[in-house]
Specification:
alpha+beta; single chain; globular; 7 strands; seven-stranded antiparallel sheet; 12 helices
Length: about 325
């Protein structure tokens, strides 16, 4: 993580406090984690819109946290194109500032905030996960403002610094889950790949919890309006947790997809994921820096190992959730 001495004393103190808060958050409180990140950046500069997104395969963005003034929005997911901001962040592994191109790259993609007002300043930073081969871009975060000229390079560095803190917190959460899995024989929910049945069962469990809460509210005589507000507040919190948890399921690897990928070499895995995203042989060759005949040879082996004849069948096996 970058040193705090690169920032002004006042900004360094804000970041230090935010790091402490993030570090003390209970494991699994991802919505609070992302919200704390957004609130901290809001003390540094205006933030009208804010989102956190993670790459899934080579086609989807899973968005567990979105904020558009004045409220948080439900989590979601969307595809992203090769000429959009997400693809640029993934390719370049560095922050994007509105001032770099007067927002042209930003405005090519999905609009956040008021549909009738364009953002006039923005920063997007990569979420970088350390690995033996160097940092890997696993997602991105963006903050935007309807005011122009409110973000500078120091604010971008602060945003990236906090991004590193968030990724560290997520890694610690995975380590805790893995440790519990080792201690208790691998029976801890939330560890490892998931099958479609797992996703359906997990979603059904969350919905049953919500149904039970609604029944409890409707069948009990609540003594006063304050009690009603309290019960509805708890129901709202349960809904928000369910939204975040179900959305997080989309970020988990598919058990079926992983079993097929395990049959392939590392290069074949890269080709298979691009193939599943409906890229042509020429596009795959350009993306990976290899020749078209080499791509054709990889595709032939992939189809053989998957036991299928059509390219479209690869996508069906690697994207079982849609």
């Amino acid at each position: 993580m970058s040193e705090l001495n690169q920032f002004s004393p006042q900004l360094a103190e804000i970041l230090r406090d935010a790091y402490r808060t993030v570090s003390y958050l209970p494991t699994g409180q991802r919505r609070k984690l992302y919200n704390q990140w957004r609130v901290t950046m809001g003390t540094i500069a205006p933030v009208d819109s804010f989102y956190v997104a993670f790459f899934r395969d080579n086609q989807y963005l899973v968005i567990p946290y979105m904020f558009d003034t004045p409220k948080e929005l439900p989590p979601g997911h969307q595809t992203y194109g090769p000429d959009r901001l997400a693809a640029w962040i993934k390719k370049n592994s560095k922050p994007y500032l509105y001032s770099m191109d007067d927002g042209r790259l930003l405005h090519r993609g999905h609009s956040f905030g008021d549909d009738e007002r364009l953002s006039r300043d923005a920063i997007a930073v990569p979420l970088l996960e350390p690995s033996l081969d160097g940092p890997t871009v696993i997602g991105l975060a963006s903050m935007q403002s309807y005011e122009s000229g409110v973000y500078n390079e120091e604010i971008a560095r602060a945003f990236q610094w906090l991004a590193e803190s968030v990724v560290t917190a997520l890694a610690r959460e995975r380590e805790d889950a893995a440790r519990e899995s080792r201690l208790f024989g691998g029976d801890i929910p939330g560890a490892g790949p998931m099958s479609v049945v797992d996703v359906v069962e997990a979603s059904g469990h969350r919905l049953e919890q919500l149904r039970s809460k609604i029944i409890s509210i409707t069948e009990n005589d609540l003594p006063d309006p304050e009690a009603v507000r309290r019960e509805l507040g708890e129901l709202r919190d349960m809904c928000e947790r369910a939204q975040s948890e179900i959305n997080d399921l989309l970020m988990r690897p598919s058990a079926e997809a992983q079993s097929f990928l395990d049959k392939l070499t590392s290069r074949e895995q890269e080709v298979a994921l691009l193939l599943a995203d409906d890229l042509t042989n020429n596009e795959i060759a350009s993306e990976l820096g290899i020749t078209v005949p080499t791509v054709k040879a990889h595709v032939t082996r992939i189809l053989d190992k998957f036991g299928v004849r059509q390219r479209a069948a690869v996508a069906a096996k690697l994207h079982p959730y849609g």
